[in-house]
Design brief:
With 214 residues, the chain is of the alpha/beta class. The protein has 9 helices and 8 strands. Strand 4 (101-110), helix 6 (111-122) and strand 5 (128-132) form a beta-alpha-beta unit. Helix 3 (48-56) crosses helix 4.
Length: 214
Amino acid sequence: MKAVIFDLDGTLVNSLEDLMDSTNYAMSKVGAKQINIEQTRQYVGNGADMLVKRALGSENQDKFEKAISIFREYYKDNMCNKTKPYNGILEVLDTLNKKGYVCGVVSNKPDFATKDMVKKLFGDKIQIAIGADTTKRPKKPAPDGVFLALDTLKIDRKNAVYVGDSEVDVATGKNSNLPVIGVLWGFRTIADLDGADIIIDSPVDIVTAVEKLL
C-alpha cells in the first residue's frame, strides 16, 4: 500500500476565520488586542500554543495560561462554524482512495481538534488523523507524528508522500525522509515552500503529483 499524508489547516481546510474568532474570544477575555485575518495567517502553523502566544504579544505573555485555556474550550465547540474543505479536496480524496492510496492527516492542531474536524468534514475519506499532543510526542517539524501514522497504517516510509502548505510542512516531510508536495492555496507563499519536491497551485493537481513521486 501507499500513503498520502496531509497537513490539515491551509492544505485540506480553510480554517482561518474560526481560528481568528476563537483567538479573539480568548483575547477579549484576558484584555488583549484583537487580531485580524492576515495576522492569523501569519501566526498559525506551529500549533495552538504558539498562535495564542503570538496573538498576546510580548506585553501580555503573563496571560498565556488563562488565554490558551479559554481558546481551547471555545474552539472545541466552534472549530467548524466557518471552516470547510477547499474546493476540489473531497473529490481528490475520493480519487486517491479509489486508486488504492491510504490518506492520513498529521497536524499541529491539538489532537482532539484534529480528530474531531477530520471525522466531521471527511468521514472515512481519511483513514487516520494525528494531531499535536506534546505529552506524547514533539510537534511538527519533528517526524514523530508522521512515523506514528505510517506505523499504525503498516506502510513503509518509502511508499509515502507528505502534502502541506508551509515551511513547517516542508521540514516535516524532509525530517521524515518523505518527498514533499507543497501547495499554494493555503496560508503561506511560494518562498515558504523552498525545498518541496513539487509545488502545485490547485487541488486538482494533487493526484498527478502523488503519482509522479510514488
